[in-house]
Recover the amino acids of this structure.
């Protein structure tokens, strides 16, 4: 289903930013289910370092919007234990780079408990975190780590590219009985879009969205690169190249079917994702397409991502390595 | 109080039964591991029975415990059935974890047992989390996090204690100081005299008790439970104990001598409790022998049950990863369910084929 068609199913929408969409998702789920609470560093009084949870503390109080110590291993472990014992924590990990501090709790406890216990543990925990370069936050606050999580068995990973998907995926994550990581690119918090207002609007985990239809080349993009790819597609249309732009939305599970169907139609694929290029998200999408649609390909698949560097501080350096719409354009031009 | 308040005669009888069950279970598990019947690793609890049983004696049935890699004793202390425990150690479908966990991950969340854990120091954050759920939903429960002396050097243990203390959560942390963190003596791993001294950093009570004396452990945990339920937050209890076996079965134990082991055995937690019950007129030697035989028979029956139980079907490897199995896993499950991994989709990749041609035994 195209994103447009999906939205048309929703009778009412409201224009809001990605930040507001995530906040609305949190507010609605806090209202809907008393077992849901938000916890993390500075999420309460401070309103979140990037202001996503702003106002929720006043609305719901400190029990339900809980400020934690700066203690990622402690609170990620506690969220895991809490999820296994009847409540539904929504953790904010301030920057995804800090996952390293809590990776033990994520990989050996949260991801494995249900399986190791033969299915006899529920794990309804959501972890929201921010990713991405572009604001001069340098190497330890700009990483894009979603590949680690999408790679690790037992965890689900979503990465919205629009305001609507930010809301729908966040709500789906909170309602899921599995651990779901929501990766928010910090450079699109101000990006606006039409967002369904229905309180039961969710986006099923594992469904991509076709944001723009086209017959000549498929661009599978994530996060900030969805919007940039759409802009690139509009400008290329003037030159007669019609790109189909898919927001992958869910990294694990991945909607192989929607991607493969598109490639069968276009014969060309660009994968645009901000994570480092080697051994990553791009490679997974490429592998699935060649498994399922090898003989539909008319040109080599192209990857757009961060070269294998960390995110440098100085703006010209940062802009050098950050993938953007121009990189998507060059990739399309190489194969069309 | 739960199943066996040791303030009562009935409770003391149950405590003795559970300690004896642990010893019999772990003796048998060690033997069957040596035979090669039980695969993987096993870490035995023999010698430490008073800590687990003394702790659980002071808990309610629906309280939580989060265990360690040395978890069999905690399971039995919490009331798990040795039959399904043994089936799990044997990797059977009818084991507590359907054969997916084994000795190191044995769990029964419904019974409040949040799992043995292969990661040293992982229990306390789990207990803090369970205590968070309890506190958040205002339930009349507590959560106990067991840890060994070695785990006191782990950062996540301190983060868990700090969080529980800061939020006044109903948690109890029980250090089983058996004097060796794997093969290294406790004094070579920590700079404090008593491991319970670390409680001072969180402004919570920290006390060291004789872990070979079930009454001392039960009393300390009982007070900690009352304190937690009163909303006064966590307590750190260090129980000084000793493991009679190696860190794991097969450990050659170059780090200690026989004299040290014998000194601790002279203070055996079961012998001393037995003597106490005899002195109180609550037990005769004959009754003790009878109880021991009864438990040995129960453990023998557990082994027979485990030996005869069915192993899981290979396709069950794909169950329980998620509440809802995603297509990434479902395609392997579907292949494994069909005899011999017959190809059922045109799109099945070469990696699927190689798997069905013998990859299952990797």
């Amino acid at each position: 289903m195209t994103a447009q068609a999906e939205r048309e199913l929703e009778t009412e929408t409201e224009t809001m930013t990605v930040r507001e969409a995530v906040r609305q998702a949190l507010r609605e789920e806090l209202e809907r289910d008393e077992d849901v609470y938000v916890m993390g560093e500075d999420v309460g009084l401070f309103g979140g370092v990037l202001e996503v949870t702003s106002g929720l503390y006043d609305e719901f109080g400190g029990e339900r919007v809980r400020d934690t110590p700066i203690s990622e291993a402690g609170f990620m472990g506690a969220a895991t234990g809490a999820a296994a014992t009847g409540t539904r924590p929504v953790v904010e990990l301030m920057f995804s780079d800090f996952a390293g501090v809590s990776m033990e709790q994520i990989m050996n406890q949260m991801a494995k408990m249900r399986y190791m216990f033969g299915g006899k543990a529920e794990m309804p925990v959501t972890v929201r975190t921010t990713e991405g370069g572009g604001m001069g936050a340098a190497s330890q606050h700009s990483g894009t780590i979603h590949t680690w999580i999408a790679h690790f068995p037992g965890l689900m990973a979503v990465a919205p590219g629009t305001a609507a998907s930010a809301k729908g995926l966040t709500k789906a994550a909170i309602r899921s009985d599995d651990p779901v990581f929501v990766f928010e690119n910090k450079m699109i918090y101000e990006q606006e879009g039409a967002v369904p207002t229905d309180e039961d609007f969710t986006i099923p985990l594992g469904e991509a969205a076709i944001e723009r239809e086209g017959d000549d080349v498929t661009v599978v993009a994530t996060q900030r690169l969805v919007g940039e790819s759409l802009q690139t597609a509009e400008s290329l249309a003037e030159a007669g190249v019609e790109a189909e732009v898919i927001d992958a939305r869910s990294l694990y599970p991945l909607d192989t079917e929607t991607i493969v169907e598109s490639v069968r139609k276009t014969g060309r694929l660009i994968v645009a994702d901000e994570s480092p290029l080697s051994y990553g998200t791009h490679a997974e999408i490429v592998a699935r397409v060649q498994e399922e649609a090898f003989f539909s390909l008319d040109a080599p698949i192209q990857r757009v991502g961060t070269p294998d560097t960390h995110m440098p501080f100085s703006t010209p350096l940062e802009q050098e390595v950050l993938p953007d719409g121009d990189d998507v354009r060059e990739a399309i031009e190489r194969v069309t | 109080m739960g199943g066996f308040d040791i303030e009562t005669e009935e409770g003391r009888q149950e405590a003795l039964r559970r300690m004896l069950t642990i010893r019999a279970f772990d003796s048998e598990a060690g033997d069957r591991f040596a035979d090669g019947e039980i695969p993987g690793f096993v870490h035995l609890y023999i010698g430490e029975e008073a800590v687990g049983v003394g702790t659980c004696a002071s808990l309610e049935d629906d309280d939580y415990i989060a265990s360690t890699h040395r978890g069999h004793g905690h399971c039995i202390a919490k009331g798990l059935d040795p039959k399904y425990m043994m089936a799990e150690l044997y990797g059977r479908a009818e084991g507590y974890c359907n054969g997916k966990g084994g000795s190191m991950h044995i769990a029964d969340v419904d019974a409040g047992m949040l799992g043995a854990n292969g990661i040293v120091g992982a229990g306390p954050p789990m207990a803090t989390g369970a205590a968070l759920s309890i506190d958040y939903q205002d339930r009349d429960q507590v959560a106990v996090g067991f840890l060994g002396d070695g785990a006191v050097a782990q950062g996540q243990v301190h983060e868990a204690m700090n969080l529980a203390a800061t939020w006044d959560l109903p948690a109890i942390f029980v250090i089983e100081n058996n004097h060796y963190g794997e093969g290294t003596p406790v004094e070579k791993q920590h700079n404090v005299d008593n491991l319970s001294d670390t409680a001072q950093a969180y402004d919570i009570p920290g006390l060291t008790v004789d872990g070979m004396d079930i009454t001392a452990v039960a009393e300390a945990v009982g007070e900690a439970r009352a304190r937690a339920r009163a909303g006064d937050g966590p307590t750190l209890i260090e129980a000084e104990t000793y493991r009679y076996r190696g860190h794991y079965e097969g450990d050659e134990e170059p780090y200690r001598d026989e004299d040290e082991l014998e000194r601790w055995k002279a203070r055996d937690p079961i012998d001393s409790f037995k003597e106490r019950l005899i002195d109180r007129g609550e037990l005769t030697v004959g009754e003790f022998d009878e109880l021991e035989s009864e438990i040995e028979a129960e453990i023998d029956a557990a082994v027979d049950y485990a030996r005869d139980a069915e192993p899981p079907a290979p396709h069950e490897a794909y169950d329980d990863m998620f509440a809802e199995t995603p297509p990434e896993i479902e395609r392997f499950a579907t292949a494994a369910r069909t005899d011999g991994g017959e190809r059922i989709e045109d799109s099945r990749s070469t990696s699927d084929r190689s798997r069905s041609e013998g990859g299952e035994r990797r």
